[in-house]
Each structure stands twice: as structure tokens, then as C-alpha cells.
């Protein structure tokens, strides 16, 4: 039986659910793992994750399609990305088939927590791996824990999609040849001061520039950037330090194959924005799919997109509707995109 929850008034916050998946890496191998009830973790005061932030994570959603199936969206790409992230931080990768199986088990065991179709809510899944044994000299941990928990979250946009104001950050997110292209907790720790500063100044998000030249736009703290040029085609900033968003890669495919857009992935100069080369701008990620950007502020110099501050522009609206249709089962999905749990 579904939990007694007012699904559409849920926010994006943690709520403990019934089951989580845990596997431990000890003596050089992952154990067989399984579902447990206990949401608490007991570890050494000197655990590697606590001292040197040795942890990587993923984020994806389970939700109910129009015809009542519980599914997740392209979990194989989350599995691949977690492997890439783990390798970069000297964490033993969690095998891809086991990752997908752990997602299946957590969602199936918490099926009563999966919001019904039409509420806009979903069951957010958080897989992560962290160093758990005592580490005092700087080196990788020997032992690790892989865990997946689930928490129901509300619709990203309550009461309609409103464009946001963003600023160009004075802080940098990711160095060239650094860790910007992996999903590491440390990338978020160092963004917290920047986002609190932006919020205090009245902005919803930070756009980070490339640290080497500070002339090119990269992404925000937790979402990739999409632009629509004056011909109505899609332009996506390219850089080795941008996190490879699964939503962005999916939207690029949808733009090309479903909507017939020309898609260009290239370096994008901040000056091009202020020259008016683009008429729509959006941020993309699992949470919102696309959230529209109404204006970008660079040290008091503000550029307002033609799409305005009232609604998302037409190209991004069509892109978003097509991808959410694919996810919800009302638009035919490319082979392998929808992973059915039950
Ligand atoms: C997770 C993340 C994204 C979005 O990725 P999705 O796979 O689309 O959810 C974008 N940027 C950063 C920095 C991220 O950590």
C-alpha cells in the first residue's frame, strides 16, 4: 500500500524510507551486499571519508509512468559515471551490473514510497561509495562502503516554471585536469560558500567560468548549461571540467533525433552571451530536467534573454516536454532508456 503522503507538497529533502542497499569492500573485494533497515552508519572517527573526503556519488530518480509502471531513467549511465568517478579518487569501482541490481532492489523494496503518476513527485535515489577504515597518512582507504538510499521528493517546479536570475561567480568550480568531470562530494563542499554568497545577493545560481582564462562559461554548481542560438538551434558548452550530465546528453539526442535541431557542442565565450547570440538559456540536470534562465549578471552588467522572466522559451519548452514525455511513457523512448523495475 502506498504511504500516506501528500505527494505534491513534498520538497527536495531527506525522508527516511524502509530499505537501503549496502555492500562493503574489505580484503580487496566487494561482499555480496543486500538490503538492510538501519539508516545509521557507525564508523571510525578516523574514517577516510571524514579526513580526506574520499567519496563519490550519483543521483537518479524512480517514478511511475502514465501506464502505472515503476521505472528509472538510463541507470546504466549512472553506473558508468560512478565507475569513472571512483577511479579518479582511487576508490574501487562498484560493478555496473551490481549497481543496476542494487537500484532495482532499493526501488522494489520501497515501492510504496514511489509517488503516483501525475503528482510531479519522484523517488530520488542516492548511490555513493566512501572510504570507511581509519586513514591518517594521506592515502586511499583500504575498506569502502557502497550504499543506496531512497527518499521521496516533490516536483521541482511548484506552481509553474519560473525563469531564474543567475550570476557569474568570482569563485572557480573545477580546475583544468582537476575533478570537475566526476561526481565527487568535494566539488560540492567547495561550492557551498559560493552558492550562499549568490543567494545572499539575490541570485538563484552561480555560473562558473573556466578557471584558466575566465572567459568561457562552464556550468553551475549542479547543472549543465544549454543555449539556444538566434536560429533556434542548440549550443552546449564544451570543456573537460564540465560534469557529463545524463540529462544534457539525453536532451542533445532528443534535440537532434526527435526535434530536428542542429546541436553544436563547443566552447562558449561569456562575451557571446552579452553580444546577444542566444535567445534562450537553461540549466539541466536530473532534478528539474531543464530550468530556464531569465538573466545572467556579470558584476552588475545584466543580460536578459529574449525569452523573458515569465516563462521558459519555446525551444527549451519543447525539448523539456519531449524528454519528460519519454520518461513518463507518453513519447516512445529510444532503445534502453527506460529501465523497468516493476
Ligand atoms: C550531477 C551533476 C549534474 C547533472 O547531471 P545529471 O546526470 O543530468 O543529473 C550537472 N553538473 C554537476 C556539477 C553535477 O554534479
Structure description:
By secondary structure, the chain is α+β, with helices and mostly antiparallel strands. The chain folds into two domains: 7-153, D-amino Acid Aminotransferase, Chain A, domain 1; 164-326, D-amino Acid Aminotransferase, subunit A, domain 2 (D-amino Acid Aminotransferase, Chain A, domain 2), CATH 3.20.10. 23% of the residues lie in helices and 27% in strands. The protein has helices at residues 48-52, 75-88, 96-109, 185-189, 192-200, 246-257, 270-274, 314-328, and strands spanning 20-26, 29-30, 34-36, 55-57, 60-64, 70-73, 122-131, 144-153, 164-168, 205-207, 224-229, 234-237, 263-266, 278-285, 289-298, 301-304, 338-340. The strands form two sheets. Strands 1, 2, 3, 4, 5, 6, 7, 8 and 17 form a nine-stranded antiparallel beta sheet that branches. Strands 9, 10, 11, 12, 13, 14, 15 and 16 form an eight-stranded mixed beta sheet that branches. β14 (278-285) and β15 (289-298) form a beta hairpin. α2 (75-88) crosses α3 (96-109) and α6 (246-257) crosses α8 (314-328). It is globular.
List the helices and strands and how they pair.
Elements: E1 20-26, E2 29-30, E3 34-36, H1 48-52, E4 55-57, E5 60-64, E6 70-73, H2 75-88, H3 96-109, E7 122-131, E8 144-153, E9 164-168, H4 185-189, H5 192-200, E10 205-207, E11 224-229, E12 234-237, H6 246-257, E13 263-266, H7 270-274, E14 278-285, E15 289-298, E16 301-304, H8 314-328, E17 338-340
Parallel strand pairs: 9-10, 9-15, 12-13
Antiparallel strand pairs: 1-2, 1-3, 1-8, 4-7, 5-6, 5-7, 6-17, 7-8, 11-12, 11-14, 14-15, 15-16
Helix pairs in contact: 2-3, 6-8
The structure holds pyridoxal-5'-phosphate.
Amino acid at each position: 500500500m502506498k504511504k500516506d503522503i501528500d505527494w505534491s507538497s513534498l520538497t527536495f529533502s531527506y525522508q527516511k524510507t524502509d530499505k537501503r542497499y549496502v555492500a562493503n569492500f574489505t580484503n580487496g573485494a566487494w561482499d555480496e551486499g543486500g538490503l538492510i533497515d538501519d539508516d545509521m552508519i557507525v564508523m571510525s572517527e578516523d574514517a577516510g571519508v571524514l579526513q580526506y573526503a574520499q567519496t563519490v556519488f550519483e543521483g537518479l530518480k524512480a517514478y511511475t509512468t502514465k501506464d502505472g509502471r515503476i521505472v528509472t531513467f538510463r541507470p546504466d549511465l549512472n553506473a558508468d559515471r560512478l565507475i569513472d568517478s571512483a577511479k579518479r579518487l582511487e576508490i574501487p569501482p562498484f560493478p555496473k551490473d551490481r549497481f543496476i541490481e542494487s537500484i532495482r532492489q532499493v526501488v522494489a523494496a520501497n515501492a510504496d514510497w514511489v509517488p503516483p503518476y501525475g503528482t510531479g513527485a519522484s523517488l530520488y535515489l542516492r548511490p555513493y561509495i566512501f572510504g570507511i577504515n581509519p586513514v591518517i597518512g594521506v592515502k586511499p582507504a583500504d575498506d569502502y562502503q557502497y550504499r543506496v538510499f531512497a527518499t521521496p521528493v516533490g516536483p521541482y517546479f511548484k506552481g509553474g516554471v519560473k525563469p531564474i536570475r543567475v550570476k557569474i561567480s568570482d569563485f572557480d568550480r573545477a580546475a583544468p585536469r582537476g575533478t570537475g568531470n566526476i561526481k565527487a562530494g568535494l566539488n560540492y563542499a567547495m561550492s557551498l560558500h559560493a552558492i550562499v554568497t549568490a543567494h545572499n545577493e539575490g541570485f538563484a545560481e552561480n555560473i562558473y567560468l573556466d578557471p584558466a582564462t575566465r572567459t568561457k562559461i562552464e556550468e553551475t554548481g549542479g547543472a549543465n548549461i544549454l543555449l539556444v542560438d538566434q536560429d533556434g538551434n542548440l549550443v552546449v558548452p564544451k570543456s573537460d571540467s564540465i560534469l557529463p550530465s545524463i540529462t544534457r546528453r539525453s536532451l542533445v539526442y532528443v534535440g537532434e533525433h526527435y526535434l530536428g535541431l542542429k546541436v553544436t557542442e563547443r566552447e562558449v565565450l561569456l562575451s557571446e552571451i552579452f553580444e546577444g547570440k542566444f535567445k534562450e538559456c537553461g540549466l539541466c540536470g536530473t532534478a528539474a530536467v531543464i530550468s530556464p534562465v531569465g538573466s545572467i549578471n556579470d558584476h552588475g552588467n545584466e543580460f536578459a534573454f529574449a525569452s523573458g522572466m515569465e516563462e521558459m522559451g519555446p525551444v527549451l519548452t519543447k525539448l523539456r516536454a519531449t524528454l519528460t514525455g519519454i520518461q513518463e511513457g507518453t513519447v516512445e523512448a529510444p532503445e534502453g532508456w527506460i529501465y523497468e523495475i516493476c
